[in-house]
Structure formats: structure tokens, C-alpha cells
């Protein structure tokens, strides 16, 4: 099962590499070394900002309740 998933992922990357006119290895680097880490950092920043908003709203709700 794992081999089938891996093979399918490789086929998808090869297909998209052909569309972009680059090699499989180049697309692999773009996706897993450049794009994925950038998206992860962006999502972590969004999570921290949302936590701050939630905390601020919680505090303001608490002050309204008293």
C-alpha cells in the first residue's frame, strides 16, 4: 500500500514537472525545500496571531461580564 501511494505521488510530481517544464528533482526541491517550509512558517504565524486575538477577546468579554 505504501509503495502504491509513493508511486502515485511520484507520478503526480513528474506530471506537474512536465507542465512547468522542469525536472522531477527540481520540482521536488521547490515543493519540499522551499514552498512547504514557507507555508508552514506562514501558518504558524497565523496561529499565533489568532491566539492573540482570542486571548484579547476573552479578556474583553471577561471585563464586560463583571
Summarize the SSE layout with pairings.
Layout: H1 2-20, H2 24-65
Helix pairs in contact: 1-2
Tell me what you see in this structure:
- With 66 residues, the chain is an all-alpha fold.
- The chain has one domain.
- The protein is 92% helix and 0% strand.
- It contains two helices and no strands.
- The protein has helices at 2-20, 24-65.
- Helix 1 (2-20) crosses helix 2.
- The chain is elongated and about 60 Å long.
- It starts with a helix and ends with a helix.
Compact summary:
By secondary structure, this protein is an all-alpha fold.
Would you identify the regions where 5 or more consecutive residues have pLDDT less than 50? none
**What structural class do you assign from the helix and strand content?**
mainly alpha
How many helices? 2
**Strand percentage, roughly?**
under 5%
Q: Classify the oligomer.
A: single chain
Shape assignment: elongated
Counted beta strands: 0
Count of all domains: 1
How is the main sheet built?
A: none
> Gyration radius, to the nearest Å?
21 Å
Q: What is the helix content?
A: over 70%
**What is the string of SSEs from the N terminus onward?**
HH
Distance between the termini: 58 Å
Give the rounded overall mean pLDDT: 93
Descriptive keywords:
92% helix, 66 residues, single chain, 2 helices, mainly alpha, 0% strand
